Amino acid sequence: MDELTYDEVGATAGEMPPGYHHVRERRVIGHGPAAFARAADALLAGDAQRRAGARVELSDTPMRQGTHVTMRLGVGILSFRIPCLVVWAERTETLAGFAYGTLPGHPERGEERFTLTLAPSGEVVFDIAAFSSPGRWFTRLGAPVGWRVQSWMTKRYLRALDAR
């Protein structure tokens, strides 16, 4: 199995570890089982990342535990390769999601979890949780910029599946 670049695998499911930058964001993106099913299909196909502006390659579609995800952001020499490994994936009638962790070569180290829930009220809720720290010399130098980019991408992910 590939070597993840952090030890706290699965920590986005609960209390996130100290020593990292934390993100927790939520958005209602639709209503009803049909909206949930469409969003779940898109999420597990990597469409939240694609619609947010990343180029995405998946070793498996839909994503499952063990899927390799390689994203690219930027253009030309300013393009970053972002390799990840899916460490959790699940789909039921009311829950769908995955979490991926960073692999060597990723600019950061940590984990990000994307979860869709069909609430009893019928709302389709999209949650994102992440913890990260700089993983390369250039992300250590530009950590505040990296956090702003992460915040910007998180907002783009949340809007990417919006069915409202």
Number of domains: 1
**Could you report the average pLDDT, rounded to the nearest whole number?**
89
User: Any idea what the radius of gyration is?
Assistant: 15 Å
Could you tell me the CATH topology label: Alpha-D-Glucose-1,6-Bisphosphate, Chain A, domain 4
**Major sheet:** 7 strands, antiparallel
Q: Give the termini separation.
A: 40 Å
- Uncertain parts: none
CATH superfamily: START domain
Task: Identify the CATH class.
Answer: Alpha Beta
| Portion in strands | 35-45%
Strand line-up across the major sheet: 1-7-6-5-4-3-2
Provide the CATH architecture.
2-Layer Sandwich
Structural class by secondary-structure content: alpha+beta
Oligomer: single chain
Helical content (DSSP H or I, runs of 4+): 10-25%
The number of distinct helices, counting runs of at least 4 residues, comes to: 4
In short:
The protein is an alpha+beta fold.
Tell me what you see in this structure.
There is one protein chain. Helices cover 24% and strands 39% of the residues. It is an alpha+beta fold. A seven-stranded antiparallel β-sheet has the order 1-7-6-5-4-3-2. The longest helix is centred in the C-terminal third of the chain and has 18 residues, at 143-160. The radius of gyration is 15 Å and the shape is globular.
Give the SSE map.
Layout: E1 21-31, H1 33-44, H2 47-51, E2 55-58, E3 68-73, E4 80-91, E5 95-102, E6 108-118, E7 123-134, H3 137-141, H4 143-160
Antiparallel strand pairs: 1-7, 2-3, 3-4, 4-5, 5-6, 6-7
